[in-house]
Design goal:
This protein has 22 helices and five strands. The strands form two sheets. Strands 3-2-5 form a three-stranded antiparallel β-sheet, with no helix packed on it. The chain has a domain at about 1-65. The protein is flat. The chain is mostly helical. Helix content is about 60%, strand content about 5%.
Length: about 450
């Protein structure tokens, strides 16, 4: 039984409404909840976690806040509750809605599993595959996730079968994804005894049925010599087959092989494959493209394009790419437009890189866009010095206080900031402290 913030949707009039904070069986929906508008009890609960519920305003019409796609409307109008009188395919599609968070439903793997099980018991191949795969994932998670205090719903006796049994049922109906999954199970020894020959055989069968993932898996087995003699040439052939069909892992792996492997090394080919995958798995692909541009391997050396690629990788979530992009700027190798620099600095600052206030201040002080803006530079240096404790910013702040640039001259504050920078080992700040301590008030 689950207690929580609950929404219900009426499958007849499509009214979405808040339900009282009651306990209910989230899978069986045993508590009837009459619709506020039409009184129908043909309603479906939608369990919300706190993150989603915080984003909903109970004082506004909920229908306008939840996405509802017309592709599913005919299903709900006709069948009302799929567990009573829906077809296996409708039950499977309902499970996919909850698994992917489509239509009005919020993402909920337990509810998805319930619907997949309903359809799987009635012989739906895709549902049988999903039941097996979800059992596998959730049991693995329960085994290794120390924060999961009790087993997921999928792991209880409700599952009525093992991973192998459900995957085998889907395989028996000729489902290519299930054949591939079974091949992977034999390959790594998951729920079955490890057997490379059986793994190889099932991946071959899946390929005949049109499974692209198995083409990649066969390439891995040839490369690593699993059940066959190691054969890099044959591995590359299978990787190319998968890449030709748009399989991202194969494209990325081919790029790595062409970049690093002795006999197969071809930087131009690596560049081509990284370009193919950059729009689909951007972080690593953009970072590797940046490396090729920076070193001039497979493409003409171009530090600016390298910086732009690192920037794209950083936007895709790579913190390492942020450091590499900053290195190119600090070393004076890349010289992007000032507007692009400002945009990047501000995005970095917004994500918590407060040290970038110093770099932004330098742009204003140097006046690369035209006139210098010492007031803005002073403000930026101040933020970097106080919040990020950047020694260069502290020294720059001392200089501006001493010389009266961007602020009123204040020798006492200048000495204070010189000392702050000097304590961090800044050589010029240490020299300034000695100079001022000796009574020399010359401008720097």
């Amino acid at each position: 039984m689950i207690r929580g913030i609950t929404l219900f949707i009426c499958t007849e009039c499509k009214k979405v409404f808040w339900a009282p904070d009651v306990e209910y069986d989230a899978m069986v929906y045993s508590v009837p909840m009459p619709c506020e508008r039409c009184g129908s009890i043909r309603t479906m609960p939608m369990k919300l976690d706190p993150f989603h519920s915080d984003k909903l305003n109970p004082n506004k019409p909920l229908e306008k806040q939840l996405c509802y796609y017309s592709i599913y409307e005919s299903i709900w109008k006709r069948i009302g509750r799929p567990d009573i009188d829906g077809t296996p395919d409708e039950q499977y599609r309902t499970g996919m809605m909850f698994l992917n968070g489509e239509a009005w439903s919020m993402r909920n793997s337990e509810v998805a599993f319930y619907w997949f099980m309903k359809a799987a018991k009635r012989g739906h191949a895709q549902a049988q595959y999903q039941v097996g795969a979800m059992l596998d994932r959730m049991r693995y998670r329960y085994k290794y996730d120390k924060y999961l205090e009790e087993p997921p719903f999928c792991c209880t006796s409700y599952a009525e079968g093992t991973v192998y049994q459900w995957i085998s049922k889907a395989v028996g109906q000729g489902l290519p994804e299930a054949m591939c999954y079974l091949g992977n199970m034999y390959r790594i020894g998951n729920s079955v005894e490890k057997d490379f020959e059986k793994a190889f055989e099932w991946h071959q069968k899946a390929i005949v049925s049109g499974c692209v993932e198995s083409e990649y898996a066969l390439g891995c087995m040839y490369e690593q010599g699993e059940g066959v003699q190691p054969d890099l040439h044959e591995a590359v052939r299978w990787y190319k087959e998968a890449a030709k069909h748009g399989y991202v892992k194969a494209q990325l792996h081919l790029g790595r092989l062409y970049e690093s492997t002795g006999k197969e090394r071809d930087y131009q080919e690596a560049f081509v494959f990284y370009q193919q995958v950059a729009q689909q798995k951007p972080a690593e692909a953009w970072q590797r493209l940046a490396s090729l541009y920076e070193t001039g391997k497979g493409v003409e050396q171009d530090f600016l394009k390298a910086w732009e690629c690192y920037l794209n990788a950083w936007k895709a979530g790579s913190e390492k790419a942020y450091k590499e992009a900053k290195r190119l700027l600090d070393d004076g190798l890349a010289h992007p437009e000032v507007s692009a620099l400002k945009e990047w600095y501000r995005k970095c600052i917004a994500q918590g890189h407060r040290e970038m206030w110093y770099d932004l201040g330098k742009l204003y002080e140097e006046g690369k866009e035209g006139e210098r803006n010492l007031e803005e530079a002073f403000q930026c240096y101040g933020i970097a010095a106080r919040t990020a404790h950047v020694a260069e910013a502290q020294y720059a702040l001392g200089c501006m206080y001493e010389q009266g640039e961007g602020t009123q001259p204040d020798l006492q504050k200048a000495v204070r900031w010189y000392k702050e920078a000097a304590n961090q080992g800044h050589a010029e700040a240490q020299a300034a402290c000695r100079r001022l301590a000796g009574g020399d008030d010359r401008k720097q």
